UniProtKB/TrEMBL annotation:
Keyword list, A-Z: Coiled coil
Protein name: YtxH domain-containing protein
Coiled coil: 75-139
Coiled coil recorded as keyword: yes
Superkingdom of the organism of origin: Bacteria
Length: 153
């Protein structure tokens, strides 16, 4: 029974990690698409060259701010997710403690080891999400800077 639950938990953790990774990929694609679409729309607009360049610079600046805001939002969501996960771990810890108190003779594992493993996994996920959020912001900023540089040329 304990092994089956552990396997199910591990599968859920893997699925959650896959979903987070997929969401981050979609966010990157959306940010890139928005920037490219905005620049394309400005380039195709029937305006004078100077106006178009000013519009491109303004749009690039707005896109940079938008990417920065989205990155901050992603970090906030990540932090909330980490907090929720820690709360769930605390709840799980309580349930595990009760189970171990009832089944001491059947189990040779300590709560502190289990808790440390969960905390290590949470820290790894948090670090990965934070790094991915920073990378997304950096990639978006670089894309905007490249577009601005190309337009200025």
């Amino acid at each position: 029974m304990g092994l089956t639950n552990a396997i199910k938990r591990k599968r859920r953790e893997i699925e959650k990690a896959k979903k987070r990774k997929k969401a981050l990929q979609y966010a990157k694609i959306a940010a890139t698409s928005a920037a490219v679409g905005a620049v394309g729309g400005v380039l195709l607009a029937p305006k004078a060259g100077k106006e178009t360049i000013e519009d491109i610079v303004a749009t690039a600046s707005n896109a940079s701010q938008s990417i920065s805001d989205k990155s901050k939002e992603l970090v906030d969501k990540t932090n909330n997710s980490i907090k929720d996960t820690k709360d769930k771990i605390a709840e799980s810890k309580s349930k595990i403690k009760e189970y171990l108190n009832n089944k001491k003779d059947d189990i040779e594992i300590t709560l502190s080891e289990t808790n440390e493993e969960f905390e290590d996994k949470i820290e790894d996920v948090a670090e990965d999400l934070e790094n991915n959020g920073k990378k997304l912001a950096k990639d978006g900023k670089k894309l905007v800077d490249d577009v601005v540089d190309d337009v200025k040329k």
